Here is the input.
Amino acid sequence: MEILVYLIPISLILGGLGLGAFWWAVKSRQFDDPEGDSRRILSDEWDDQPRP
Amino acid sequence: MDGSVERGGLAACPACAALPGVGEVAAGGAAEKELLLSLPEIHCAACISGVERVLAAQPGVASARVNLTLKRATVEAEEAVEPGALVAALVAAGFKAQELDAGLLSSTEADRAGRDLLMRLAVAGFAMMNVMLLSVAVWSGAEGATRDLFHWISAAIAFPAVGFAGRPFFASAAVALRARRLNMDVPITLAILMALGTSLYETIHSGAHAYFDAALSLTFFLLAGRYLDYRTRAVARSAAEELAALEVPRAVRLAGGAEEVVAVGELAPGDMVLVRPGGRMPVDGVIVEGTSELDRALLTGETRPVAAAVGQVVSAGEVNLTGPLTVRVTAAGKDSSLHRMADLVAVAESAKNKYTSLADRAAGLYAPGVHILSALAGIGWFVATMDARVALNIAAAVLIITCPCALGLAVPAVVTAASGKLFRKGLLIKDGTALERLAEVSHVVFDKTGTLTMGTPEPVNLGDVPEAARRAALSLAMGSGHPLAVALTGALRAEGVLPLPVEGLREVPGYGTEAMAEGRVLRLGRAEWVGAEAGEETATWLSVDGAAPVAFTFADRLRPGAAEAVAALKAAGCQVELLSGDAPGAVARFAGALGIETFRAGVLPAEKAARVEALQAGGAKVLMVGDGLNDTAALAAAHASVSPATALDAARVASDIVLLGESVAPVADAVTMSRKAVRRIRENFQIATAYNVIAVPLAVAGMATPLVAALAMSASSITVSLNALRLR
Here is the structure.
């Protein structure tokens, strides 16, 4: 059962990472235009990365 | 964050590489303003990049970003940039665009509330998953110190997570309790807090059962319902705001000989206002200068324009057709007839708000029921065992099991699915209970002008008019902006008629146009002016130097989908009626063409409302479809109401549903869809009840372990959501 000492923190950290990523995505307004974003992926134009 | 991406995007965009200064503007932070443009017709990736490229190529534009979900573009530009120029550039490139009044759009505020709810949902979701992971270990047999450790870790996650995520419920429950009422949030809050409290107690005493996962999944599923509900309303609200923002209410005030553009709200009685042809009267007043014709269709439903001369009283909402008019304001703002009508609407609205939705009715039964049930279970066990710990555990289990997850999701999941489908068909549901009210409709009352017709005239007797007269009429009609003249020009051009060469073409405001050809005077205009007898039909007359005048008669163009809508509504079992302020002849012909048996002509606004009320007093549930000021009272009085997007502001405010497109066919779709939606909602309630019927006896018997609670809760929530998705 000693393995739990590692496994529990790992599961908590992974969960926390997921939550952090979601928080970042909401904060940077990535859910503002879901429909537009699903179309933009088809566009040939790119923004700042990668630079030509 | 956002801005830097935008500016980077600009630098890489080939269209603006050739545009010097854009980078400097952005970097230098010159005076910038944000403009909003409505793009009603964009729908694809090519549209997005096309619009952004056009906007970015305009001088002074720092960045442009299209939001396809809202069909809107946000432009950051220098102070000097005119929205009109941007719109013109987009229209030239083939994109329909309109300026939006940013002040009327509270999108940022709404966004913040939505993001806040989404964050709480996410926290609840992630915490739920972690705790569930630990709970599964306990359920599959972890014992002793391991179980206690898992319970403690669960508690450490659950308490802060619930404290953050459950705030909306706690706040709402506190408000309700302070007002000595019971709402849905009171049992929710009690269930969550009791689940956490008893679980903590059990954990401290190394108990076998802890409901931390139940408390979290309860919060998660309920927040999901709240978020769906919020989203539907936010979409409807932002679209409704957009409709309002499309009409920027301004007026031209004449002060000391100079013209100044002011907001309509700033006008006071005694001011002089200039109303140009095509403009809408912003206020009630008296004409002091100019002659013209007025279109009163929105106020009275009458299609024929009325002559306007000095001394005549005008009301806000009328449209000036031919010549410029100077109007002395007699009543503005709150006192104007438009506003008085809006007050009438407010009175009727409060009556409509008394409608209790299905969810409220369910909550009214549910909230006291679970409290009593849980208290009885607790007391019963205490009497039987004299053990407060067991009794409290049982009471908590009953509260958790009967959790209104399914109830909380039952309505929003269906409403979200239904209003999404209707929105794609061009219907905007403004009110939360509109779908339910629409489903009960038994009578449909239509207004004619502007609702079943486009409100634009169309010549009907061109075939009977000799070629020479047609050529002369075309030349004369081309010289005027009057709706009849514009319609005539379009129709004659479409038939390939060539204009007669004329000299000295001039428009006589309020009467018509006049010109010379081959030494003869040609006139096109009002019957009295050309020496003809005005008939009952809408017509314009052509006279050639004293010869007998020739009439061009007009009929209002039918709105597309009108016949389909009437047929579909009849097929759905609704009685269809037509109430119009127009002349009897026109209304009868029109009703016959659409297959409407019951109709009334020359109806006054108050009579429309009275008719709706009379029908409803007789037990009918009326759906009113109308667009004008004369319909507003009826729209507000009806059980449910629909107005087209071209309707007057007051009418749109009074109605529950706005038709965004040109066709009226979606009205019938709305009725059938709402009936299906209500059927699904009822099914969902039945599913939720069925779960409770099975689970509650288990809980009362003390057999509801945390595993059973988790299974029942998730299963009922998921079934209810899936059932909502079945909506077609």
About this structure: Residues 537 and 586 of chain B are 8 Å apart (CA to CA). Chain B touches chain A at residues 1-2, 4-6, 8-9, 11-13, 44-46, 48-49, 66-70, 111, 115, 118-119, 122-123, 126-127, 129-130, 133, 146, 149, 153, 157 (CB under 8 Å). Residues 1-29 of chain B have pLDDT under 50 and may be disordered.
